[in-house]
Design goal:
CATH class of the largest domain: Alpha Beta
Largest sheet: 7 strands, mixed
Distance between the termini: 13 Å
CATH topology of the largest domain: Leucine Aminopeptidase, subunit E, domain 1
Shape: elongated
Structural class: alpha/beta
Number of strands: 17
CATH architecture of the largest domain: 3-Layer(aba) Sandwich
Strand order of the largest sheet: 11-12-17-16-13-15-14
Number of domains: 3
Helix content: 40-55%
CATH superfamily of the largest domain: Leucine Aminopeptidase, subunit E, domain 1
Radius of gyration: 25 Å
Length: about 425
């Protein structure tokens, strides 16, 4: 699917989205707000760079030919890096409007309101060096302001703290260097002397998007569909927009879009994840005595063992490709899906048995209308399956399942109980992403 993707750490980039819509109302656009990780301006450049690359790769796998980084912090941290590492995607970034501000000032003083991350980046220093050598540039970091705008909280007290320096500086042009700030433009203007010009770079970015599309032969004439995605699980937000979750938690190591499902790698404790169902790497007797199974039994409480024993009495031992379903007890998930992965043996058909366990788990999750599922490295622990092989096969089997089947499942988290296992899952996902 040919479309434009626009993303920001939150709702700030919706101003850029609106300007793009004005210029290309026929374009298909997806807007992703990274609520699970934002605001970017409060994080280090390295954190923002890594997260931005993860999101960009995810958007590429969702069908985006052009990605608009509607965030000054993310552009400062990662724009050049992304153009080098993902060359088959066209990137349009944000930059503080230093050049037009320097051209318009008559006092010889301009001010830039931005996040700390924006001022840390080489991009900002380069802009000042190239375009504002003869102008005094007053930098004002505004910690907490983007977050307050994001949450719909009052911003008056913050602006009263940040703006007096600008108001008394003699600057006659003020650059809004964070996409959240134009959303409160009137409140900013009210605290500055009459005649001070505020510059929002969104119109220039929108013009550049259309220009880049034409230069590269991208036909923007589609259905005019706009989708709003959030990386947070909570979609009921103060802004009253209709958000659709793409499950990319803040600790995600990699993420891939497969049809309508997100496949993501994370490290951590599977028993603590707020998903519809977690998958248990069980044995045939559903006797949860070690590994992931014991952790699930202990976290969920007595009901896990009691329901497991009742299932075996009714159905017999758990066979390959079959899944048992129990409640999740005290865990934040709703269900546990138990599958018996293979005990690894040289010469045995280990791959077929492991794939059958994965598919059996996903079939059951589909039957119960699960929306989010978490799956461990089945058979890779005490059952002896080589971890590199198991994680790769599990990831590929999950991806293949959603390529072929319609399902209500919207995300599958592949969970490594340690960093090494999680990194293996991430590597498997990244390999599939590169091959797209």
């Amino acid at each position: 699917m040919s479309r434009i993707a626009v993303f920001d750490s939150g709702i700030g980039g919706t101003g850029v989205l609106a300007r793009i819509r004005e210029r290309a109302p026929w374009a298909d656009i997806v807007y992703l707000a990274d609520h699970a990780f934002g605001p970017y301006g409060e994080r280090t450049l390295e954190e923002v760079r890594n997260r931005t690359e993860l999101i960009a790769r995810f958007l590429r796998s969702s069908g985006a030919e052009m990605v608009v980084i509607a965030c000054n912090s993310a552009s400062a941290a990662a724009l050049h890096h992304l153009r080098e590492t993902i060359p088959d995607v066209l990137f349009v970034g944000m930059e503080p409007a230093v050049k037009p501000a320097a051209e318009r000032t008559t006092s010889g003083k301009i001010a830039v309101l931005a996040t700390g991350a924006t001022f840390q980046g080489e991009l900002f220093k380069s802009l000042v060096g190239r375009f504002a050598g003869d102008v005094e540039v007053i930098e004002r970091a505004c910690p907490g302001l983007a977050l307050a705008v994001e949450r719909g909280e009052p911003v008056g007290a913050l602006l009263d703290e940040f703006l007096p320096q600008i108001a008394m500086s003699g600057a006659d042009v003020v650059v809004l260097g964070c996409t959240h700030y134009p959303l409160i433009e009137h409140e900013i203007a009210a605290r500055l002397p009459p005649g001070v010009e505020l510059i929002d770079p969104a119109p220039a970015v929108a013009a550049r998007v259309v220009e880049v599309a034409h230069e590269n032969g991208i036909d923007l004439k589609r259905s005019g569909l706009v989708e709003l995605w959030t990386t947070a699980l909570e979609t009921d937000r103060w802004d009253h927009r209709e958000w659709q979750t793409v499950d990319i938690p803040r600790d995600a190591l990699s993420a891939l879009s497969i049809e309508d499902t997100t496949l993501v790698a994370v490290a951590g404790d599977i028993t603590q994840l707020p998903v519809t169902a977690i998958v248990n790497a069980a044995n045939e007797s559903l006797d949860h005595r070690g590994g992931v199974a014991l952790a699930i039994s202990m976290a969920g409480g007595d009901s896990i063992d009691e329901e497991s024993a009742a299932w075996v009495v009714e159905h017999g031992p758990l066979s390959p490709g079959v899944a048992a379903l129990t409640s999740a007890g005290r865990m934040p998930s709703t269900y546990v899906i138990h599958v018996a992965g293979p005990i690894y043996q040289h010469g045995a058909d280990n791959e077929t048995l492991l794939a059958a366990a994965v598919i059996g788990a996903l079939d059951t999750a589909t039957d119960i209308q699960a929306v989010t599922v978490a799956m461990p490295a089945i058979s890779a622990g005490v059952y002896g399956y080589p971890a590199d092989e198991a994680t790769k096969l599990i990831a590929e089997t999950v991806a293949g399942y959603f390529s072929d089947e319609e399902s209500p499942i919207r995300s599958v988290r592949l969970v490594g109980y340690d960093d090494a296992t999680a990194a293996r899952f991430a590597s498997a996902i990244e390999s599939m992403s590169v091959s797209l």
